[in-house]
Amino acid sequence: MPDTPTRSTAVWVTVALGALGMVGVHVTLYLSYFYTPTQVTPGTLWVVTPDSGAPISLYESYRIFFIHLPSAYTTAACCGLTALGGVMYLLSRKPKWELLIVSAAETGLAVGAMVLLTGTLWADYAWGSGRLGSGWNWEARLTTMLILWLAFAALLVLRRAIDQPRQRSLATAVYGILLGPLYPLVSKAVDINRTSHPRSFSDLLSAPEIATTQRIASVGVVIALLSLVALRYTWNSVGNNLNTERAA
Fold first, then answer.
1. CATH code 3.30.429 for 7-247
2. CA-derived radius of gyration, the chain
């Protein structure tokens, strides 16, 4: 039998994370719409753009921040999980670590798309013209995030291109380790080439209602998104068990 946790344990972990995450998401959505302030007069809610240092009005658009930032945190966690799974697989050769790499990469592909989509929509309003796609300017932060998203996709495509199970597992582990440093590169990209993306959100978080909602979102939404890793892990584990039984 594959070296995976019992099915019942994996299912209960997935259900628990999913339930906690759904509570966190609902609380975040409620606070973001009914608790955080709306800018009704100029100068009451600003974030500083790094290119010219001049503040821009955010009005209602900043509310996407409560999904955008937790999605970025989850993408970073997925990078860490792929690297951890890669190292542990090379040390132990246990299939559960390969499952972790694959599950984290699948989740990273989904939440990375959320980061790109929400960031682009926010940028369209914040420093674009308001037209869809006008905020995408190929600056370092945006470009490196796109590269990371494509790297998650490449790992999953690479696995499908290798027929030999042992070679596929080794390639998955090595690729998972290589994925690890990519998110720190994304994080530092704003210092490499600062154009439009804010270096920090300290001005935005100076409003206590926004800071409180952001902290709740950073826990609740991240748990909800990380539950996808547990869901994919359980699903992939069941699939492996079925394939093993059919081959027996």
1. no
2. 20
